[in-house]
Amino acid sequence: MGSVGTSGAILVSSFLSLGFTPGSPRRRKVTERPFSLPPRLARWLDASSSTFERLFRGKGPLTPPWRVRRYVGYFDDPREYERSAALQVSGLRSAGVLTPTTSVLDVGCGSGRIASALATYLTRGTRYEGLDPQPVPIRWCRDNLSTRFPNFHFHETGTYSPKYNPQGRERPEDYRFPFEGRQFDLVLLLSVLTHVSREVEERLLRESERVLSEGGSIAMTEYLLTEETRRPVESGLSTPRFPYPLGEDRSETPGSPEGFVVRDSRWARSLWGGLGLSVERWERGSWAGRGFESSFTSKYSFFQDLLVLRRGEPEGSEERRDSLPPEAQRAALPRG
């Protein structure tokens, strides 16, 4: 490419890296839907934005190029990609579920956003495993993260998803994690359950419980429909909006949970209890509107509700229960 073409590529990619796109606000909001481009233009922007980021921001392979980042959505700006991961890892540390020697299973790891932050936090011998149905992000993670951090492994699930993996051959309702039981101290399900049916959610949580070590935790995010959040959801004040009934849940797209789904919390509590999982922490996100979020989710960039589940009744649960929202207090009560 000539000097003029190179300068033009760098100029355009600089706007992308700073969050500027034609016809958009100054910075793309995290809650907007990702967009797609014609393949030829996407490849050109990918090459130019990668060059710009490496030359002018000094970033190595821990930050994927725009072409790969877009698979996880909302991250035209690589700085926002890195910032959100760093904050959420700090939040998991603050919640007491993550230390440098915590073995991690990251379900729905995408392009390695959380993995890139964990790579410089976990000790070199600590195990990390990532699962995702999307071939392109998994390939990038293997080529750029696993080669530098051999304790980080990434697995393509091969499960079918109309949106995320239409070529998949395995039913997600039947998918079994490729690990023996009681292997991981922490299972992550970050922005995963917000895109699946109840049957898939039950399967994912059942498998997560199966591979969880004694004393381990599940940290997950979800949109949960409660007595308090029902009003803004039904009034169209939440972000995303959930205009379409989906049984007792509500969805962003008609007849499908794959856009976003807000889950009825009564069903979710019943599922958790049936799997022997108790609520240790429930932090409300800001998705339901101003005033609903907790200071924790605001500080650590969790837009959805953040929940920490443990097997059985955690020690000190009586004291912790007092700090949960009313719905979580009821969910954490012993069953009998």
Describe the structure in brief:
This protein is of the alpha/beta class and 336 residues long.
Number of domains: 2
CATH structural architecture of the largest domain: 3-Layer(aba) Sandwich
The main β sheet shows up as:
10 strands, mixed
Backbone structural class: alpha/beta
> Helix and strand succession?
HHHHEHEHEEHEHEEEHEHEHH
Number of helices: 12
CATH topology of the largest domain: Rossmann fold
Overall residue-averaged pLDDT value = 82
Beta-strand residue fraction:
15-25%
Query: Which spans have pLDDT < 50 for at least 5 consecutive residues?
Result: 1-34, 315-323, 329-336
The CATH class name of the largest domain reads Alpha Beta
Distance between the termini: 71 Å
Instruction: Name the CATH superfamily assignment of the largest domain.
Output: Vaccinia Virus protein VP39
Silhouette: globular
Radius of gyration: 20 Å
Question: Total number of β-strand segments?
Answer: 10
Helix proportion range: 25-40%
